From TrEMBL:
This is Exocyst complex component EXOC6/Sec15 N-terminal domain-containing protein. GO terms for biological process: Golgi to plasma membrane transport; intracellular protein transport; vesicle tethering involved in exocytosis. It comes from the Eukaryota. Residues 104-206 form the Exocyst complex component EXOC6/Sec15 N-terminal domain. GO terms for cellular component: exocyst; membrane.
Length: 242
């Protein structure tokens, strides 16, 4: 057991050590065994395991495998079933390798190509996510400002989102959904801000009525029931002049 890897599962240990996964290792061993059965030391046994079938319709090469009627060894039977599915997908240069060492080398080259392709795909995905994250952060900021009723900052954030951030990722589906929602968001901000403005003006009017009622009470000097202040009945006792 390698120190520091005790807590990892088998697949993660292989990945940390830079080794093939169990699935890739088994596939590589199956390919080498199939090559030996077809062209190598076990060619006579391979004639019972596999039969070739030529086809001009296949892309890349005109050769695929068919299952033989070999049923004595279960391991060879499983190998036969796996290789019949996988062998037609191999490149022509792999199938036509002249000897085993060349076959192993070509397999290693193909695996290296796949690793490089995966690295390019990962790098491209990271770059795309780097472009998308600021857009999502601005949209989250906009929603937070709308929730806290900060209407003017929300309009400024919406403007930046519409004219600066969304054009950079306009080809993504979520971006198109955001662009379609912008008029709705702007109208929602407008309606909420108008409602808040009306409530504010109404509170000013109620405050003015309260002040007027208090001034009248000072002039009268008697208890009066006021129903105009904040929509509630408040009994106010005026102090009598000494």
């Amino acid at each position: 057991m390698v120190r520091g890897l005790e807590h990892l599962c088998c697949e993660d240990r292989l990945r940390e050590l830079g080794l093939f996964s169990l699935e890739k290792g088994r596939l590589r061993a199956d390919l080498i065994a199939a090559f030996q059965y077809l062209k190598g030391a076990y060619k006579k046994d391979g004639e019972r395991l596999f039969t070739g079938a030529c086809s001009d319709r296949m892309r890349g090469k005109g050769f695929k495998l068919k299952e033989g009627k070999f049923r004595l060894d279960i391991r060879k039977t499983l190998l036969m079933m796996r290789m019949v599915r996988y062998w037609p997908r191999l490149p022509r240069e792999v199938v036509d390798a002249p000897f085993l060492e060349a076959f192993k080398l070509i397999i290693a080259m193909e695996e290296l190509k796949q690793c490089r392709l995966q690295q390019r795909n990962i790098s491209a995905t990271v770059d795309k996510l780097t472009l998308c994250l600021p857009v999502l952060e601005m949209y989250s900021k906009l929603r937070e400002q709308m929730k806290s009723k900060r209407h003017y900052p929300a309009l400024k954030t919406l403007e930046h989102l519409e004219h600066t951030y969304l054009p950079q990722v306009s080809h993504y589906r979520f971006c198109k959904i955001m662009v379609d929602n912008i008029p709705k968001l702007r109208e929602e901000i407008k309606e909420v801000s108008m409602s808040d403005l009306k409530d504010f003006l109404e509170s000013i009017r109620q405050g003015h009525l309260c002040c007027c009622a208090w001034w009248q009470l000072e002039d009268l000097g008697t208890p009066v029931l006021i129903s105009q202040v904040w929509g509630k009945a408040i009994e106010v006792h005026a102090l009598t002049a000494i």
